[in-house]
Amino acid sequence: MRITLLGKNVRNVQFSTIASLHGINMFTKCHNLTMLNTLVDNGKILWKEYCKSVTLIGIATGGLECDLELLLASIHDVMIFCIGKKELETLKNVDQTKRDLRQCYPLIDYLLESLDPNAISSPLPTLVLDLVQSFLCPQAQQLQQALDNYAESVTGRWACLSIHGHLVATSSDFDELNPREARLMLLLAASQDGAPLRETPVYLPHMSPNVAFRAVTCKLLSDVYILVVCGATPPLSQIDEIVLLCWEGYAQVIKEAKLIHPRNFPMSITFEPCVLAILVINIPKRRCVFSRHLHPTQKGRGMSGSHRLDILRTFYITTARDLAPELRIDDQERDYLAGLTETYWCSEYHKCHAQRMRNLLCCVLYTSTVHNHTMRSITNQILQDLSSNKEIYW
């Protein structure tokens, strides 16, 4: 079975082109060869086979091509998440499997749209595929206590609360999940069609790829969802009552947390006017916070929000990620980078600077007029503020 993914800026690929891509893969397999990838104008085509039964073909241009293999792995995770690994491996009935996979299309569409900063319908711009996108708010600890209480009440585990598709708070045991599994949970919540309460059987690609769990998603307010993984009981009707009991007193707390978006940082964290966008990563937790709306009173600033996202994504994927070997997704040895804590880019139109301080990695997009030594000073101060601010709770 083969699936072709049309990546960023790829529109209306002709059937003959798709057939040719499949043909190239079949030809190389017949000759005991493996077609890994090929380069096209400002882009890349990648073939990837999983479980000896599914071949994904991805096409991407721009900064996303650097992480195209990770994108295909994420798509494969979505497929397992929806129907299970055993079903994908055995393919006893290909037509039935194709029909079963239709349930994962909304998740895949959501993921692809979120990777395109120019998509008008994009619900959430996504910077990094292997990290969980979050935002930081002073209410996170209160919400964690509420989640723990809610999960216990429904005899569940691994509960989370999302606002505008960002992870805001989690239950105490949520970190047991692989970061990509946690991201799938967020995708499931964010891609709901507005139903107030829904249950979905899900397979966790790393923890339980063949045995399904029951994921219950509940809409608390507009763009606010809670998700909990629990057993077959209690029934949805009872969970509906439990939700009311557990969350009725937290409406104001959640409304205050919503005000953090789209800045995604508490107002107690201030940024210099020369800072255009920022990406902060908590390395052990594999969570990231991104903002391109740091200065609400200053509009325009000569660079579109989508352009800022693209620049910062490319800078992180191609350069800044090397500052955190724990986040490396390949097996390449880069001993010459050991101990590196800073890196930067300079161009005619902008500058980028990244610095690591213990468990935090900070990538900042600056105006082109800022001096290099000033960049270092500002980034360092941001990291110190994030490390010492008592309103920051990951």
TrEMBL record:
GO terms for cellular component: cytoskeleton. GO terms for biological process: non-motile cilium assembly; vesicle-mediated transport. Residues 158-243 form the FUZ/MON1/HPS1 second Longin domain. Its main location: cytoplasm. Keywords: Cytoplasm, Cytoskeleton. The keyword Cytoplasm applies. Residues 8-111 form the FUZ/MON1/HPS1 first Longin domain. Pfam families: Fuz_longin_1, Fuz_longin_2, Fuz_longin_3. InterPro entries: FUZ/MON1/HPS1_longin_1, FUZ/MON1/HPS1_longin_2, FUZ/MON1/HPS1_longin_3, Fuzzy. It comes from the Eukaryota. It is found in: Cytoplasm, Cytoskeleton. Residues 275-389 form the FUZ/MON1/HPS1 third Longin domain. Belongs to the fuzzy family. This is Protein fuzzy homolog. It comes from Bombyx mori (Silk moth). The lineage of its organism: Eukaryota, Metazoa, Ecdysozoa, Arthropoda, Hexapoda.
